[in-house]
Amino acid sequence: MKGKAKHVVGGGGEDSMKYSNNNGGVAWSRGPLLGKGGFGSVYLASLKNPKLRNGYYPPVMAVKSAEVSASCSLQKEKEVFNCLNGCPFIIKCFGEETTRDGGGEMFYNVLLEYASGGTLAGLIKKSDGVGLPELDVKRYTRSILEGINYIHSHGYVHCDLKPENILLVSSSTKAGEFVAKIGDFGLAKKSEKRNKKRKIDPYLRGTTLYMAPETVANHVQEPPCDIWALGCVVLEMLTGKQAWDVKPDVTVDELMRKIGDGYELPKMPSEVSKDAKDFLKRCFVANPMFRFTAEMLLDEPFVSGVDLDGGEFVETLDAESVEWKDTLCGTDDEFSGSSFYEEWSFTSDEGSCFSPWSDDEEGITSSVDAMTHAPRVEENAVQQYLPTCTIPAGA
């Protein structure tokens, strides 16, 4: 693996020096930069001696790294991965390791499954605003939904579901196909409904364009928020466009007011199937108490008949065979042309069933009658989830 510095993507400078191949682990070497996020940088990694298959590390991995002094969020993400092991629709975590670069700087590394297909965002971008074939959307949606259901059943909320955080891993049974897997748990949190003591967190987690009305209006972030975000992702896959059609001069505050009011919903595409429309209706319910759960959505006709490949995949690539320019995931900045991709740093609640859309509606204008029964995010929709204040340890 020596002499591979010429493949490092992203130019020279501090990052290239800190994350050179010399800054690898005991059994792996660090390769090119794949992407940069708010909590660390992701690099390709390969085993130093791939012939010595230890049965634990695959030949090729993705390594998410941060300086030890700034690795608190990455360490918390590793704790979430520890609790979510075993789901074939969540990116695998192979462990953690602390390394030191040539200058003596220490780095915390989390070893993750490598997604050779990049991100769902990259795939959507390649559609040039047309969207993906509906059969592909069904398959990816089913995979993502299985992952969400697993996350929720284990007491967690992802809080930042979006195409950039859905990774495409090579299928174990069908050549040329990819399995959609959920990654990036840097903003994930435990569901408050499982805690007897409610906590107040004044901050929002996630990306504005994918936030649910109750998140914007009341800082409520519980399982229904992930379902709303899933609807945004599915709509984006179907149309090639973001769920909210915002003008260039619209500010983040204006968009948040639009979402938080709950009277307007993302526009329903007319060119998709009835099953797809029905699925979206179950996701885009302003009142979280009447939004479908992941378990309920798995029975929807849009995804219920999809045959998934969730089997174990043994990566047969080695570092020599990876073509960097084709497989790079891209940095957050690549997909952040709009200020609406602003991410928030840290939280509060729940629900589950009927949509304010009527079956013959092509757009998201909710009827007066429907909104009378499921109004924006009223106090009574979140009253049962009001948190109580707790004093942080050490305060």
From TrEMBL:
Top-level taxon of origin: Eukaryota
InterPro entries: Kinase-like_dom_sf, Plant_MAPKKK, Prot_kinase_dom, Protein_kinase_ATP_BS, Ser/Thr_kinase_AS
Positions annotated to bind ATP: K64
Alphabetical list of Pfam families matching this protein: Pkinase
Keywords in alphabetical order: ATP-binding, Kinase, Nucleotide-binding, Serine/threonine-protein kinase, Transferase
Molecular function per GO: ATP binding; protein serine/threonine kinase activity
Coiled coil regions in record: none
Any single biological process term in GO: signal transduction
Span of domain Protein kinase: 28-303
Transmembrane segments: none
Signal peptide positions on this chain: none
Database matches in PANTHER family: CCR4-NOT TRANSCRIPTIONAL COMPLEX SUBUNIT CAF120-RELATED, PROTEIN KINASE DOMAIN-CONTAINING PROTEIN
Family, as annotated: Belongs to the protein kinase superfamily.
Protein name (Swiss-Prot/TrEMBL): Protein kinase byr2-like
Organism (species): Populus euphratica
Lineage of origin: Eukaryota, Viridiplantae, Streptophyta, Embryophyta, Tracheophyta
